[in-house]
Amino acid sequence: MSIGNSPEDERPFEDDREETRLSIGRALQQARIAAGLTVDDVTNATRVRLPIVHAIEADDFGPCGGDVYARGHIRTLAKAVGIDPAPLLAQYDADHGGRPAPTPAAPLFEAERIRPERRGPNWTAAMVAAIVAVVGFVGFTAFKGGDGGGDKTQVAEGSTPSTGKTASPTPTKPDEPKPDPTDSAIAAAPQDKVTVQVSAADGRSWISAKDHNGRLLFDGLLKQGESKTFQDNEKINLVLGDAGAIQLYVNGKKIDEDWQPGAVERLTYTKGDPQVG
User: What pLDDT, in 10s, does the model give residues 111-120?
Assistant: First the structure.
């Protein structure tokens, strides 16, 4: 009779090992700290945007824009902080349904084969256009020449050209302040939709916007002074990379929030009064 541990007795120890496995974001964060690097250092070295680095270290891969980009960012960040990316990529594939299938390249080659078969230029239409242009130029020149001859005849006969009354200058009104196009656009927002305008008033910021179906409306860097307007029948989902630089208008009303510089904010707005969903 065996006195060793049964398989059932060993299972809790395996579960403990599973619980100690670091997540992808936590592993990258610890490796970065161990290497003595800041998030800015990693961003400058890899060109991966600051909000995306923060999101990945928090195990949020949504801002990456898909599995292919997420795997690429994981590989790049792992190499930057000095760890092997292979285990992290395998862990990501296991958590997200396997490795994404490669995009077939056949349509690109088909387009290249079709390109030489395009028809040549329509020389007949080009010749007709050239003839019309020449005829028009000759007619215009003859018309201008006739006007010049009439003027010379009048001078030779001593006729005095008639002079019209000088038009009195129209008094100009003082410049009135023009309405801010941002305010007029927001005021015209339909009541049956949700309208969100994002303006980079105090600096540049990466933003991402999706509609109620999760379709990506915008994902990129908003430079200082630029603005974007998004509209949907139900709701708009936002991610602000640097919320402290953003000025936000929702359904015609300004959102007054004390967001700190560099703070990442995830917001959802619906129809009606501005309120975060």
Answer: 444 455 555 5
